[in-house]
Amino acid sequence: MTKILLLSDTHSHIDDTILKYADWADEVWHAGDIGDLLVTDTLKKHKPLRAVFGNIDGDKARMEFPLHQRFLCEGVDVWITHIGGYPGKYNPNIRAALQGNPPKLFICGHSHILKVIFDKKLNLLHMNPGAAGKSGFHQVRTMLRFVIEGDKIKDLEVVEIGVK
Fold first, then answer.
1. pLDDT (tens digit, 9 = 90+) per residue, 44-88?
2. Closest CA to 4 of 37, 29, 41, 32
3. How is 70-126 classified by DSSP, letter by letter?
4. Residue 112 in contact with residue 137, Cβ under 8 Å?
5. What are the pLDDT digits (tens) for 92-141?
6. How confident is the model at residue 136, as a pLDDT?
7. In sequence order, which residues have a C-beta less than 8 Å from that of residue 89 and are 6 or more positions away?
8. Helix (H, G, I), strand (E, B), or coil: what is residue 43?
């Protein structure tokens, strides 16, 4: 069993509430727009971190983190990228790869809108945790936490951090 904290779009913001949830997790996954690498450096002091860079991230983040992360977590094939789109409206730059070899769990950020959607056509679960930072049009800061056990994704919970 692996407990995951999923966040995105921190835009250089990290606080004790985020870290409290990171301490609950076995791994923290960040879906891009990190901002200042102090965010990821701080998260790495608490738990193992997997992250991708986003469109606002500079050279340092792009040197440390990839555009895409594809990996196995227990029995679940996971793909994380920042600008991924949504079922039926995937980013044209990844659409063919996604359709040709869909993961079980597809994660992106970018929109600042929390969404969890099952894509029946590709038989995958799509997650966007919204935005954990204070920059952007979103009103409530959000993250997701869930458990991966074998090939199952379960115990999904929306974490509302509060208004920005």
1. 999 999 999 999 999 999 999 999 999 999 999 999 999 999 999
2. 29
3. EEEETTEEEEEESS-EETTEE-TTTHHHHHHS--SEEE--SS--EEEEEETTTTEEE
4. yes
5. 999 999 999 999 999 999 999 999 999 999 999 999 999 999 988 889 99
6. 84
7. none
8. helix
| 113 phi and psi angles, rounded to 5 deg | -115, 120
Residue 136's contacts (CB-CB under 8 Å, 6 or more residues apart) are: 9, 11, 112, 164
Q: What is the DSSP letter of 55?
A: T
In this structure, are residues 42 and 65 in contact, taking their beta carbons and an 8 Å threshold? no
Residue 5, beta-bridge partner list: 28, 145
**Helices 16-24 & 38-46, crossing angle to 10 degrees?**
40
